[in-house]
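A.,

Following up on our hallway conversation. Structure tokens first:
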């Protein structure tokens, strides 16, 4: 069993580094339906006031979830101000990490954290060392157990996105109805611009590792993926942006820009998985 699990992770690692070309407006419905099953809910319970932050994430290995840094760290502001260099104009954005054991992972098309049992808890977090989410709003969660019955999605770690590409945002924000806790794939959305730079038409300001999409993302979608509309690969992570019903200024962190972090997280997940199996 150990060899089988290691082999699966090794195959995943090799697939992640392969990369692929630009997406076209033509979607692959079958690939996207499969991919949606790999999007999970990430709930962080705050011990100081009992509140829960609900975000989305992507299962990228049996015991590894990709999400946004601001979903798993204590927030110092709800309105990060970033420039095109990826620098903050209003100081630090996040403080200490949440206790990993207070971060729960849920699966399915609709979740209720007050009723449903989590499928796993985080065991550790892996993310950039900065306290600013500009250009760096990405984190990995190594889980305390493998989730073997959920689709594992490949990350595109070589070759990013370009203006004019098409992606599909998926998350637990409930889509246009705002039914938070329901996983909804949004309509295929054009990548409007890629950093560094700004978009005068939408107001988006992008660092070198960010891109902007047209389709709105809503509360609960944070940390969820942007999937290549053609292949289903994860190319970005929801970071910040305009309101749920606005077009444009929905900012994602590029996954390929953090390839080294991803490979490090995959290795930590592999080691943790072997340790769990050895204890059984």
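Then the amino acids I'd put at each of the 280 positions:
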């Amino acid at each position: 069993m150990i060899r089988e699990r290691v082999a699966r992770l090794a195959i995943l690692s090799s697939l992640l580094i392969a990369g692929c070309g630009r997406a076209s407006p033509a979607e692959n419905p079958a690939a996207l339906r499969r991919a949606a099953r790999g999007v999970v809910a990430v709930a962080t319970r705050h011990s100081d006031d009992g509140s829960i932050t609900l975000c989305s994430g992507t299962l990228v290995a049996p015991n590894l979830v990709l999400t946004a840094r601001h979903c798993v760290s204590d927030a110092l502001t709800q309105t990060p101000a970033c420039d095109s260099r990826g620098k903050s104009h209003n100081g630090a954005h996040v403080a200490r990490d949440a206790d990993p054991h207070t971060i729960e992972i849920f699966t399915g098309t609709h979740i209720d954290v007050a009723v449903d049992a989590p499928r796993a808890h985080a065991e550790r977090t892996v993310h950039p060392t900065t306290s600013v989410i500009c250009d760096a709003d990405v984190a990995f969660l190594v889980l305390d157990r493998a989730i073997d019955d959920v689709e594992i999605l490949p990350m595109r770690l070589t070759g990013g996105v370009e203006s004019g590409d098409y992606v599909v945002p998926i998350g637990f924000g409930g889509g246009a109805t705002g039914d938070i806790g329901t996983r909804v794939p949004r309509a295929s959305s054009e990548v409007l611009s890629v950093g560094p730079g700004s978009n005068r038409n939408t107001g988006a300001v992008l660092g070198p590792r960010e891109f902007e999409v047209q389709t709105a993302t809503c509360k609960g979608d944070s940390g969820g993926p942007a999937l290549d509309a053609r292949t289903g690969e994860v190319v970005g992570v929801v970071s910040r942006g305009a309101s749920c019903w606005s077009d444009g200024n929905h900012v994602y962190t590029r996954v390929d820009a953090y390839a080294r972090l991803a490979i490090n997280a995959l290795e930590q997940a592999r080691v943790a998985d072997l340790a769990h199996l050895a204890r059984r």
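The helical segments are 2-16, 29-36, 259-279. Curious whether your intuition agrees with the design.

B.
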